[in-house]
């Protein structure tokens, strides 16, 4: 039962929750400090201390990546939650509010795990890499203080957001949403500060020849800082949505009643919608980051894309291509429960063709594994025909068309059971088709033209391609909204009436997102090779070598497995917690409701 | 049409395999063919499984076989053919052959951050072509002309008259020399990279670049630093390409 709107927005219950959160973080920080100080005074002074068995590098890598994944989750979930809450407030549909609430409930425990992993990472870094951490601490001292302030701020706001959920309903809703936005702003600030340290290690600036600080702001706002900020922010939303969808998928598969199936089917759809929505602009943010890396250091860029890490990009391409497949698969199967959507089935042949050709192009390696005989037949350097697909000109074209195709699947899904009735419907639909056709034309034209111009011009072309696709999507949606106003509905969406195999697509997407984070995290960090701070502070430890791809991907896979187990634990334990609201989560009436 | 989903899927799969195997010359290396066919298989399965009607028709023949609703000889043929195919595939993978083993190759070996040029350490991260930086048109033309002379005295035997990687010795080498007119070679690289490759040649390649055993000589032993920069000016000019550069104004910071 929701409390009456006259209740005070901040209750003693909410304040108690906040105090608990502050206490928890304070205790953890104090214990970490005590542990580090104690061990540092016992252990002999050294530039590097060696951890037996695992080795320094892997020992730091595992908690760092796990911490990052949980941090992404606790930053992604509030974004996901507040978007859903706003949709609920605008549409006045309670089930959105319930969905947002259900995920925010996870935050308290997820914060704890994130903080524990962060403390582990801090302790390992300080104890195993004392000299380097000393240098970084000195350089970024004011940002450390800011970081701690932000952590406490985040805990206070996030706990108020959660514990105030039920009391801040009705006329207090807007304040609660404002609190949700604040959680996100605070979380984003945390992300930006941590990114400053990481990106400084990749593309240092703001220091003189002797590596002394000249300008803290320049050290923070280095070449790769903002691209990584944006890339991670978008990825966090996609990640939060994907995990939410996977959770819904598990619940759907375990559901025993039609009502539950309907609820979790809908939840999975909303999660995947937010995940894919954030995923679509992600490659563009990635290109920006790649461009900045090349601009900072061609050597680093070549190591990443053409050198020893090139093969990992084939893995990345396979994973992202699979995501496109899974997203479209899920949407197409979902159209089976939308009356009238079968009129779009005929387009699926063309769409799978574009997706498959795009995937093949994207996965075509520039550096090919070949036997001696095959190499002789190719004439050495590269395959004269396949080489055309191994370069960015082809890959940019492919990914843009795949994004556009996925967007079209979404639009067809959205329109599935609705027929526009506005008088200008025919013109509107023709305009939409024209916009998409023009975008495809621009992408193909510049894709082909890219082969005939120098690289500097070619890089500029990718901007035109991206703009054409983003522009087409924006115009399409801008026409679609008034077009579907008052549209005739063929029938209500039959939530829960989806083939169970669609749920595996959601589960698959969450795993692939997690794998991508691990893999890309390794590449981003690995391209520094034997440098702590690229080109400035060398890694002189025994671990300053580039691992074999087999070893690195095994570690990444292991980390992903541990993360999935931990997050499943968080979900299971949170589900067991007694809901202090005093009753079971409200079952939401779904019949006849339209989620879009 | 939809009721033939299974047959169509099989036909598409075989058609793609035949096209990739026979329609492209020189033949696609087996590693890439495998990658392509795995993706094509997934694409076909995603397509058939994404619609209830299609999926129903796709699994219908399989169900008919496994549930015994087809003539016994068909059932036997399928149950014999599947393990036989798997066995044949396994044999193809494990059968002994005399080819050199698979080795990953790197088309653009990554340059080291520093390398030695006649005993001096050169910083790759900040290296720029001194003959291009701030040069006027007259001196640029003079250095490019000098580079052309150096090129035809030293490089053209392998890299060719028209910089197409097709010089007299080209076909005797493996890998064949770089084709500077190919958009995938020097136009993708900064001049500092090209300077490193020319100066240190095949022996200067990093371990990650093996088995890219290039026959390129270590040109710092034969040419001066200025001559190498001049040759670089010429190969870009002569091939009609430009070195990879960055518009410093858009990056936010200069390094």
Notes on the protein architecture:
- The complex is a heterodimer of chains A (596) and B (255).
- With 596 residues, chain A is an all-alpha fold.
- Chain A has a domain of 170 residues.
- Chain A is 71% helix and 2% strand.
- Chain A has a two-stranded antiparallel ribbon with strand order 1-2. Chain A has a two-stranded antiparallel sheet with strand order 3-4.
- In chain A, α2 runs antiparallel to α7 and α16 runs antiparallel to α17.
- The N terminus and C terminus of chain A are likely disordered.
- Chain B has 255 residues and is mainly alpha-helical.
- Chain B folds into two domains: 93 residues, no CATH class; 132 residues, Cytochrome Bc1 Complex, Chain D, domain 2 (Orthogonal Bundle), CATH 1.10.760.
- Chain B contains nine helices and two strands, in the order ααααββααααα.
- Chain B has a two-stranded antiparallel ribbon with strand order 1-2.
- In chain B, α1 packs antiparallel against α2 and α1 crosses α3.
- The N and C termini of chain B lie far apart (62 Å).
- The relative contact order of chain B is 0.09.
- The chains are: A mainly alpha (596), B mainly alpha (255).
In short:
The complex is a heterodimer of chains A (596) and B (255). Chain A is an all-alpha fold and 596 residues long.
Write the layout of secondary structure elements.
The complex is a heterodimer of chains A (596) and B (255).
Chain A: H1 12-42, H2 56-91, H3 94-104, H4 107-128, H5 130-139, H6 141-163, H7 173-202, H8 216-220, H9 225-254, H10 258-279, H11 282-296, H12 298-305, H13 310-334, H14 348-363, H15 372-378, H16 392-415, E1 418-419, H17 425-449, H18 455-483, E2 488-489, H19 501-526, E3 531-533, E4 537-538, H20 549-576
Antiparallel strand pairs in A: 1-2, 3-4
Chain B: H1 5-22, H2 30-49, H3 52-66, H4 72-94, E1 114-117, E2 120-123, H5 137-154, H6 156-159, H7 191-200, H8 225-239, H9 248-251
Antiparallel strand pairs in B: 1-2
